[in-house]
UniProtKB/TrEMBL annotation:
Homodimer, forms a heterotetramer with a Cas2 homodimer. Keywords: Antiviral defense, DNA-binding, Endonuclease, Hydrolase, Magnesium, Manganese, Metal-binding, Nuclease. Mn(2+) binds at residues 156, 221, 236. The keyword Metal-binding applies. This is CRISPR-associated endonuclease Cas1. It comes from Coprococcus comes. HAMAP family: Cas1.
Length: 332
């Protein structure tokens, strides 16, 4: 899993000399800190202040999740990349040019949904043509002409709903979506989307943490208390590329199955432990998979692409360079 550690069991996480120790069922599992950047806790994990201090010293982020696999929160070491200059300019950018960045993000979502659907169109799923045509002829012009963020959010909502509606053409029947239900998810496809989006959101938190950007000042989503709204902004264009391509691959290759990998109760449905492990492994593989970057003239991973979008935003804020989020078609 590279620089990310996932804890699925009940246990206790402590500092042991200069490494981390996870104790479960009377056994110790040692985690080296050298290349650890993030820890994900998907079960009840005991921690203490000595551990938190050690994580801070080593700039390690720790994410916590509840029983449903929903995001509870992040322990975020004190910012070591603080920049007063960028913070002021980021706030000014929000005040003066919020629409430019919000528009670029919504357009970027459409660009990547188009590419994902076009893949299925090329492989014989001609029914998705309606959505592809609509994105080109209606969605893009609407985004360009939108006058405020509320209008942009409405167009964004519609492109996602049309995308979800096309699942019926290329996913097995038991993974087709009736409607998007988030908290808690009510069927297998909603469970996968919620889990995947949450993983991507926390990966974006980690990417932003390694830059001088402020997590709280966002452009498409309203900056609000209790969440890192810039992470919501920057993760959006990567959802079709990372979350949904992971889901489609796992479902269509039957690596995830309704009867084997989900816990379904009366009003909710979540991945079980085995299902989560399969999803996380595939999700990490996709993050680490590489493509040729046309400008950098070298191969980069999707994890790096996420960080590059942070730097593009910084260049926009400091140097007025146009912000164009990651495009699956362009590979940058």
């Amino acid at each position: 899993m590279g620089s990310t550690r996932y804890i699925m069991s009940i246990g206790e996480l402590t500092r042991k000399d200069n490494s981390l120790c996870f104790r479960k069922n009377g056994r110790n599992v040692y985690i080296p800190v050298e290349n650890t950047k993030e820890i994900y806790c998907f079960n009840e994990v005991g921690i203490n202040t000595k551990l938190l201090d050690f994580l801070s010293q080593n700039h390690i982020i720790i994410h916590f999740f509840n029983y449903y696999g929903g995001y509870s929160g992040t322990y975020y070491p004190k910012d070591h990349y603080l920049s007063g200059k960028l913070l002021v300019k980021q706030a000014v950018k929000y005040q003066n040019d919020r629409m430019d960045i919000a528009r670029a993000i919504v357009k970027g979502i459409g660009v990547n949904i188009y590419e994902v659907l076009y893949h299925y169109y090329k492989h014989g799923k001609k029914e998705v043509k309606n959505t592809i045509d609509w994105i080109k002829k209606s969605f893009f012009p609407q985004v360009v002409q939108a006058e405020d963020v509320k209008e942009l959010m409405a167009y964004e909502g519609e492109v996602w709903m049309r995308f979800y509606g096309d699942f019926v053409y290329f996913l097995p029947e038991d993974f087709v979506m009736n409607k998007r239900v988030k908290r808690p998810p009510d069927n297998p496809i909603n469970a996968l989307i919620s889990f995947g989006n949450t993983l991507l959101y926390t990966k974006t938190i980690a990417a932003i943490y390694q830059t001088h950007l402020d997590q709280r000042i966002s452009f498409l989503h309203e900056p609000s208390e209790g969440r890192f709204s810039l992470s919501l902004d920057l993760s959006e264009v990567f959802k079709p590329v990372i979350v949904f391509k992971t889901i489609f691959d796992l479902v269509n290759n039957r690596r995830l199955q309704v009867e084997k990998h989900f816990d379904k109760q009366v009003n909710y449905c979540v991945l079980n432990e085995e299902g989560r492990k399969i999803f996380i492994e595939s999700f990490e593989e996709r993050l680490e998979s590489v493509f040729m970057h046309p400008k950098l003239k070298r191969k980069v991973s999707y994890r790096t692409a996420l960080k590059l979008d942070c730097y593009k935003l910084i260049k926009n804020i400091l140097e007025e360079k146009e912000f164009v989020p990651f495009s699956l078609k362009e590979g940058m």
